[in-house]
Design goal:
0% strand; 14 helices; single chain; 64% helix
């Protein structure tokens, strides 16, 4: 049995560490690129890590909670909606106001088109969906297409999962169909949907069941430490500079993640204070991903000069604002979920094996 109880092993704090690193990589990479210090593909690595975390943790969530006969697609959907929108809604509203404010003030800023149709489409996660309802990205919210993709993946995979479990068959079928367009479009490197991110997500989803099966055989920790080093090194070698992520590079990335999880399941060495610090950084990582690009563009629009000092200050400001933003919104998603469930007469949340580490641009992303 996989345990994410921080009192028993280091898996929970390890996942939190990866989530915090992913958010910082995206923020730093965008500060470097948008700040005019040079072209970089580093933010793409942060997105990949978010998707790996998301796939693994959604598998854990579904496997853990679906053991309860009363838990189904409605409960899962409420939780995913609350997890995403508790921070996404205020973020997209703030991004809209900031973008329009700059426009009305005649301050030059590099951004995507600003119009009501695009904004409403982004509000409802329709950016770059391959169907008639598709819109582009709005203003300074270009990076949020990955959040929309994860949102669609959650409902598509959740519906398929519970459909195969024989729960709410009609409802699952009705939900899976409209949410299938975007995940399936990202299933391969077709034009306009690079990186086959749904394939990576599914690999990470499957890795949970591999870890769950291997743990039962009491795996050798030293072997998996070696496996982690080898697979990570192989991925880094394949991930050549200037080359965006490709489908052939995903297996080594997922295998290195799988190996790290197996190691962390059998050790408890992380100092308490360090674990607490990592948790703090992880707890605002989703907020940082949502609003960092707007903050960076705001700062760069009023601070001329392409310097490392300017980029560093922008990163610090983005982190500080994101931390406060998370305190106000992101950290209350459990309350929002419970409130919606109570309004619908659904049972309260229950977890087997301790509370899961929260990993997301939703639950995982850039």
């Amino acid at each position: 049995m996989i345990s994410l109880d921080p009192a028993k092993n280091d898996t929970s704090v390890t996942l939190n560490l990866l989530r915090a690193i992913a958010a910082q990589v995206v923020c730093i990479g965008h500060a470097w690129g948008v700040g005019g210090l040079g072209k970089t593909y580093v933010p793409a690595d942060g997105v990949l890590l978010f998707f790996v975390l998301s796939g693994f943790l959604i598998a854990y969530t579904l496997d853990s909670k679906s053991e309860s006969p009363s838990y189904g697609l409605v409960d899962f959907g409420i939780e995913r909606f609350a997890r995403i929108y508790t921070a996404y809604l205020p973020a997209i509203l703030a991004i809209g106001l900031a973008t329009l404010g700059l426009r009305w003030s005649d301050i030059e800023i590099v951004a995507d088109p600003v119009d009501l149709k695009t904004y409403i489409g982004n509000l409802f996660m329709q950016q770059n969906v391959p169907c008639c309802l598709s819109v582009g990205t709005f203003g300074t919210a270009g990076q949020l297409t990955s959040v929309a993709l994860e949102f669609h993946i959650y409902f598509f995979v959740g519906a398929i999962y519970f459909l195969l479990c024989g729960k709410n068959v009609l409802l699952c079928s009705l939900v899976a169909a409209p949410f299938s367009f975007m995940p399936l479009a990202y299933f391969s490197n077709i034009p306009g949907t690079d990186r086959a991110l749904f394939v990576l997500w599914l690999m990470a989803f499957a890795s949970y069941y591999v870890v769950k099966g291997v743990i039962g055989y009491r795996p050798n920790v030293l072997f998996w430490c070696l496996a982690f080093v080898v697979t990570l090194a192989t991925w880094l070698i394949e991930r050549t500079p200037g080359d965006d992520a490709s489908l052939r590079q995903y297996p080594m990335l997922v295998l290195s993640f799988l190996s790290l999880v197996l190691v962390s399941q059998h050790v408890r060495i992380m100092p308490y204070r360090l674990a607490a610090l990592i948790t703090v950084a992880a707890d605002y990582s989703y907020s940082l991903f949502l609003i960092h690009l707007t903050i960076l563009r705001l700062i760069f629009s009023v601070w001329p000069g392409e310097t490392v000092w300017r980029a560093l200050c922008a990163i610090i400001v983005a982190n500080a604002v994101a931390y406060v933003f998370a305190l106000l919104f992101e950290r209350h998603y459990h309350r929002v979920s419970d409130w919606i469930k109570a309004a619908l007469g659904r049972p309260s949340r229950e977890w087997r094996g301790g509370p899961p580490a929260r990993a997301s641009a939703g639950d995982g992303q850039s």
